[in-house]
Amino acid sequence: MKKQPFVTLEQLKEITKTYPTPFYLYDEKGIRENAKALKEAFAWNPGYKEYFAVKATPNPFLINILREYGCGCDCSSMTELMLSDAIGVKGEDIMFSSNDTPAEEFAYAAKLGAVINLDDYTHIDFLEKTIGYIPETISCRFNPGGIFQISNDIMDNPGDAKYGMTTEQLFDAYRVLKQKGAKHFGLHAFLASNTVTNDYYPMLAKVLFELAVRLKQETGADIRFINLSGGIGIPYRPDQEPNDIRVIGEGVRKVYEEVLVPAGMGDVAIYTELGRFMMGPYGCLVTKAIHEKHTYKEYIGVDACAVNLMRPAMYGAYHHITVMGKEDAPCDHTYDVTGSLCENNDKFAIDRELPKIDIGDLLVIHDTGAHGYAMGYNYNGKLKSAELLLKEDGSVQLIRRAETPKDYFATFDCFDLVKGLV
Ligand SMILES: Cc1ncc(COP(=O)(O)O)c(C=O)c1O
What's the 212 CA to ligand 1 centre distance in angstroms? Predict the structure, then answer.
């Protein structure tokens, strides 16, 4: 399927009069339509709630859009908790799914009344020592080990992942938590990332639902929710078939009726913690071609770099690129599209067939709305870009300003030595 940007060249020309490239642009219309479709797909489950994975796109303006569709926040750190609290997401609207958790983060999550999802058996004691009690509602993260497969496709390798408890630990955890005063339980697992198949959630649901029935029978725990976490993917490549959230919701419903309802667990709420699926396709990185270089290969140098989008450098991830205004031109040039970091992996595309690129052309790097801006860093003293929202009425709102050198130097503000810089 041909990947179309959600913005036109004319709109971008207008936007760049006010906001210099590079910048992130988000599509309000797309975010809303998708959030609505997700809500509808799980409407069969009265307790259903999506806890948006804040780590994917930690921008309060975007999270506030999702809140209109009933979403809460899935947080994994102190600052994500602070952000959620600051925009009024409180109490059980926050899921705290962290790992290797510092004591002060547990304490803060408990203070906010967030639902705490324990990553490890030893965290029971750690949490109790930290906050002085075990919350009445608590969740545990499960890791079945081995390899997670759908048909013959290896989806991921939980046995090699640092997250979650073994089956034995999970049963022990429920018993111990119950003894210590927990009254209501949740069960959570994240077994595969970026799954571009409608089968992942239903398969995961089967594993978790059957486990929940056993947990209830063997420990007597009152299981209130099952959290399918994140992992629903998006088609980064044009040849990939997008997931159909209605089919996924229906697949989970079928398993729910086969496994939970007969076990007298037809009141269990389904939770999700989606990040990529909620935002990925509805954000793009807009950058400009500023150099072309002809050596052993053909290079196009752009004004964004891996600081703005790390996924290609970090995972070799594919992000589709549209050269704006040349959508229908033949892809008869082969380029490496590079950033300016002193790192040879700072390439948005390698050997990519694209139309001829001229200096000044605007490039849209697709599907960067999740785990894009958020992974940014400051190597080479490069600064993070602005984030903009393309609103439904076609207007543009600045939703995070670009970093300035002052931000970069701010952590020296306690030293006289660098007074001139901060
Ligand atoms: C605990 C947890 N929940 C949810 C997510 C969101 O995952 P995704 O963006 O794949 O939906 C992540 C991603 O890293 C995660 O670690």
Answer: 21
* 219-223, 394-398, 410-414, range with the lowest pLDDT: 410-414
Structural domain boundaries enclosing 364: 281-409
Residue 344: which CATH number?
A: 2.40.37.10
Ligand 1 pocket: which residues have CB below 6 Å? 53, 56, 74, 97, 190, 193, 229-231, 273-277, 370
Q: For residues 266 and 299, state if they share a domain.
A: no
Average pLDDT for residues 390-417, to the nearest whole number?
A: 93
Ligand 1 atom closest to the CA of 371, numbered from 1 = 9
- Find all residues with CB under 8 Å of 187, minimum gap 6, and list them: 139, 140, 142, 170, 208, 211, 212, 215, 223, 225, 226, 227
Ligand 1 center from residue 274 Cα (angstroms):
6
Domain end, chosen from 233, 259, 279, is at: 279
> Averaged over 274-288, what is the pLDDT?
98
Q: Is the pTM of this model over 0.85?
A: yes
> Closest Cα to atom 10, ligand 1: which residue?
231
Kind and range of the H or E run holding 10 = helix 9-18
Q: Are residues 391 and 402 in the same domain?
A: yes
**Residue to mutate (ligand 1; options 273, 276, 375; most atoms within 8 A of CB):** 273
Confidence at 196, pLDDT banded by 50, 70, 90: very high
The total of structural domains in the chain comes to 2
